[in-house]
Amino acid sequence: MSISSQEELVKQWESEQASLRQQVVDEDTEDWQRSPEFPGLERVGGVDLSFIKGDDVNACAQLVVLSYPDLELLYEDSRMVTLTAPYIAGFLAFRETPCLLEALQHLEKTQPNLLPQVVLVDGNGLFHYREFGLACHLGVLSGLPCVGVAKNLLQVQGVTKSEEHQSQIASLQRGGDSFPLTAASGRVLGKALRSSDSSTKPVYVSVGHKISLDTALHLTHSCCRYRVPEPIRQADMRSREYLRVHFPTTAD
User: Fold this and answer.
1) Contact criterion met (CB below 8 Å) for 228 and 195
2) Is 153 within a domain?
3) Which H or E element spans position 221?
């Protein structure tokens, strides 16, 4: 892609993000969200993509649905996809959302009783350059509550891996402890969460759609048996296993 073509695409995507950003709801909207025990929450989804080694175009898009609170597998969908949009930093959602949305829509059409009531996304939500990451994009287009859970810190809007940040991580004493990710503007865009007593490296939680940050944080922690919440961990494991089985010489 030429530089001019990429610049035009970036302008187009920025405009689309700005428009879709207006539709994000960063408050609790569902009955099950109104109590810390989440009464009525029965199905939690997780999505992830795993790529064939050395190939940034062909990937396994994975959707899992787990029971809540037991976190047992109810449904899984592994599908090979070919990503057509180029990778441009800050616009990952334009590559990955279409195939993840297709998996959710297929489930809604074929087995609507298994459609997740909330989806945990391996990526960011409002904690993003323009406050519209993958979890927001998927949430707005699917209409489902979504939570962004990133394994690594996106250094954005003044949040960096500074000494202060490392000190805040060290201050997290037990699973469930957290601290805010505050932008230079003063706006809290997410929280760093120590997800289990045994894991000292946090995950980064942010609102995707139709959920408040406090509820997103509490839900994420309640879904953690290990560092990464179980819906995302299962999606990651199963997509990698699919590639190992079907592409044994090329799986990453």
Assistant:
1) yes
2) yes
3) helix 213-222
- Segment 11-36, tens digit of pLDDT: 999 999 999 999 999 999 999 999 99
252 falls within a domain: no
Mean pLDDT of the region 129-158: 95
DSSP letter for each residue of 25-52: --S--SGGGGSTT-TT--EEEEEEEEEB
Structural domain boundaries, residue 46: 3-246
39 within some domain: yes
Q: Cα torsion at 127, 131, 136, 140 (round to 10°)?
A: 160
What SS3 state is found at 145?
Answer: coil
Domain count, the chain: 1
Using only C-alpha atoms, the chain has a radius of gyration, in whole angstroms, of 18
**Structure tokens of 122?**
């391996």
Task: Read off the CATH number of the domain in which 150 is found.
Answer: 3.30.2170.10
| Contact yes or no for 170/147 (Cβ under 8 A) | no
Q: In 3-state terms, the chain is what percent helix, strand and coil (to 5)?
A: 35, 25, 40
Q: CA 113 to CA 22: how far, in whole Å?
A: 30
With CA atoms as reference, report the closest residue to 123 among 102, 162, 94, 165.
Answer: 94
Predicted local distance difference test score (pLDDT) of residue 94? 96
Q: Could you report the per-residue pLDDT of 64-122, keeping only the tens digit for each?
A: 999 999 999 999 999 999 999 999 988 999 999 999 999 999 999 999 999 999 999 99
Do the domain assignments include residue 251? no
* Cα four-point dihedral sign 82, 86, 87, 89: negative
Whether the CB-CB separation of 223 and 231 falls below 8 Å is answered with yes
What is residue 58's predicted lDDT score, i.e. its pLDDT? 94
